[in-house]
Amino acid sequence: MYKSKEEGGINLLDIKSRNDTIEIIWVKSYLDLSASRPTWAPLMDLILNNIRPCVNDNENNNTNPFLTSWTPPIRGNKMNSLPRVAQMLLKTARKYNISFMPIKISKDLKKNLLAWSHIGTPTNAYHKTKTKCLNETHKSTKVKNLLKIRKKLTHINDEDRHFPRKNCPCTACQKDRRIGCKDPHKCAQTANEILFRITPKFNTKTKPKKDGLSLTRRRKEKNHQAHESRQGEILFDPTTTIRSNLTDCFRIFSNPEHNSLTPAHRLQAPVRGLNLLQDHITIFTDGSCINNGKENSQSGGGIWLGENHPKNLAFRIPGSKHSNQIAEISAILLALQ
């Protein structure tokens, strides 16, 4: 009944799918962490954080819980204590597997991740007694705050040297004591321990491996010109690092089992055969469909690398579903394999 008249239906509006789409867009608005975030979103943060276990008694409740290691419940007493709109938000996020799942993020974005209940840190990395001063006195809320506190341990300056003791006379420790910190060196050590436990994917010390795939500035300019003029070739940019904001790190229809905390990088070129870091291959692919859109449609595709090349291939699409798009995509997938 929901299909078009050409397909035998009556083009009836699918109310359920429409409502699901509205709920997904609503969750998307809530996860917008940019300056254009809706005014109601911070209030939702407070509501959800009331049922979230915190690693510190005075942990900031204005944080977005989807940026933490907490898995929101979808049933039980805590779930039932929430307003109906909050329950709907959590259920929609769980139903469509909406989660924080970037491939790679820039160092600046890593610094803006939460210091407490960090999404890439095990819960046993925090100790309420040891982290109390970092939270209450130093007002540390993000990773960049912990990095600043830890800096005194690695900053080498003979004129203002840091000493590993409670009464260290360095400028940084004196400044910390003025705001009420009783043992700046101990706080720096605690911050260092927390930062060390952050998984490599979100650790600021993890450096991306050079894979020889990043486009040059000149090539990016050519891509931009080709896009603006709608003429010329646009070379695919394989750079996967997210640099804009944390909002772009959320994914829908994700598979939690495939959420790897290992940094994404390209495998090294094989020792034998084609060196993918140095050479390139031009592959031509195409697909077509006979009687496209009809019940008796048939489709197939082809791959061509060169005259009499052993990898040249012509194939037919099996099954009952056929279209030009299916044939073309199948040809590309086979070529990549």
Short description:
This protein is mainly alpha-helical.
Descriptive report:
It is a single chain. The longest helix has 16 residues, at 15-30. A hairpin with a 7-residue loop joins strand 5 (284-290) and strand 6 (298-304). The protein has helices spanning 15-30, 41-49, 77-80, 84-95, 107-111, 128-136, 143-154, 171-178, 184-197, 217-229, 324-336; strands spanning 99-100, 104-105, 241-242, 250-251, 284-290, 298-304, 313-316. Helix 1 packs across helix 4 (84-95) and helix 6 crosses helix 9. The protein has a 3-stranded antiparallel beta sheet with strand order 5-6-7, covered by helices on one side. A two-stranded antiparallel sheet has the order 1-4. Mean pLDDT is 85; it is low at 271-279. By secondary structure, the protein is mainly α. It is built from 11 helices and 7 strands. Helix content is 34%, strand content 8%. The radius of gyration is 27 Å and the shape is extended. Among the domains are: 5-98, no CATH class; 122-197, no CATH class; 284-336, no CATH class.
How would the blueprint of this fold be written?
Layout: H1 15-30, H2 41-49, H3 77-80, H4 84-95, E1 99-100, E2 104-105, H5 107-111, H6 128-136, H7 143-154, H8 171-178, H9 184-197, H10 217-229, E3 241-242, E4 250-251, E5 284-290, E6 298-304, E7 313-316, H11 324-336
Parallel strand pairs: 2-3
Antiparallel strand pairs: 1-4, 5-6, 6-7
Organism: Suillus discolor
Protein name: ribonuclease H
EC number: 3.1.26.4
